[in-house]
Amino acid sequence: MPLRRTSRNDNTIPQSGSLLTAMTLAAFCALSLYAVTAWIQIKTEDPYKRQQTVQTSTYLSSLYELFGDWDQVIAKLETARQEELPTPLNDIGGHLHIWSAENELVWPADSLNSDPIGSERQILLLDREVIGYYQLSFPAGIAGSPQLVYFSVIFGLLIFVVSYLMLRKKDEAQAQLLHRLSDQLTPLAQTHPEHVTSQTRNSGKITMQMIDAEIAKISQRLYRLETIRKSMVADIAHELRTPLSVMRTQLDHSLTQQIPLDMTQAALLQDEIYRMSKLLSDLQQLALAESGHLPLYPTWFSLRNIIHELIELFAIDAEETGGIKIGLQGEGSFRIYADETRFRQILINLIGNALRYARSSVLIRVSFDASMCTIAVTDDGMGMEEEELPHVFERFYRGTMKRREASNGSSTGLGLGLPIVKQLVELHKGTITVTSKWNIGTTFRIQIPIFHDPEA
Prior knowledge:
The protein folds into three domains: 1-205, no CATH class; 208-291, Helix Hairpins (Orthogonal Bundle), CATH 1.10.287.130; 298-449, Histidine kinase-like ATPase, C-terminal domain (Heat Shock Protein 90). The protein has helices at residues 16-67, 70-82, 146-185, 188-191, 198-203, 208-257, 263-291, 303-320, 340-357, 401-405, 417-427, and strands at 95-100, 105-107, 122-126, 129-137, 298-302, 325-329, 335-339, 361-368, 372-379, 431-437, 441-449. The strands form three sheets. A five-stranded mixed sheet has the order 6-8-9-11-10, with helices on one face. The protein has a four-stranded antiparallel sheet with strand order 2-1-4-3, with helices on one face. By secondary structure, the protein is α+β, with helices and mostly antiparallel strands. Helices cover 54% and strands 15% of the residues. α7 (263-291) packs parallel to α11 and α9 (340-357) packs antiparallel against α11. The chain crosses the membrane at residues 20-42, 148-167.
């Protein structure tokens, strides 16, 4: 019984964790703000008070020296306050109280509190004589003010709202991901029925065993790809080492013996250079095709004409390898919309590969339906063993020793032809498959859209 797909309303997003996390973060930020502000005030309050005290002492002593008694000093201060004249006292952040030398409160004159609460009284001296006293009563610091508490609470609430919304959004994204994962893994229930219980059938949830099974498959694939990558690097080094060694040997001998190269040696070097150039060209083309950066230039062309041209091209090789016949089966002009150059390359690889292993004939069959074109290239060679088929389109795979021995005496190549064919077919949004029966033959089948716009 297949699992039903879960609805987005089946699972509710857990909010308690987000709420608790947001509250904890908000409380931490609010307390941190309060603590930092209080610490800054403590570090700056004492120097500020000392500066204000020195400034006040200097100003009051100067006024007393100028006017000679406190009555005129107080009159000056009253006039400045009423007329809002700028004085150094305007910069004092606290409340000022002044007493005469006889300990009488002279400022402010209307104060009923003769002994205000604040800092200690400071002595006013002029020419080493006591002329009076003053006291600065500074307002409560910001750390003890309710404004800081209110601001910290507001700041904490803001952090709470922002963090809660962000956590909710993250939870919703995770829930959506789980829904998509559940939808995608639901078909696994058919392949892993042992992991599906009655509870999972009713709830529509994918069990962890099924997810673990799929993750194991992905891990195996990654391991296989990494193995292929390492093997590919080794194969490339091997393929380059041989021609480079031949060229170096020939050139070293020529330079050491001071003997010019004859035509045979020059031809040998040219063959090795051609092998290296083809290898690098194939690797570059395969890399571009796999990354999707290989450009295509599609046009309408006749597939029948291209196949006839290639049959004539391979006819001489087919005759020399034992009179192998190449036939075409199919009616019509076979017109398709594709990159003609790339498609010619596909057919050259498939027909050349079939001739390499055929005993007596190679048959090319072409058929059309409403939107697809099918091309099958069949040889009557010894075929491939079943365990070979999954590796046919891998880089540098050349088949088993038996198959290489059955290649009509020709080289099996570098193992890049079929991987390139696969990538070119997929660039045209087509598919390629291979079927083979041992000692009967092999068939490569391509299905490709008759019309496909690569820009769409």
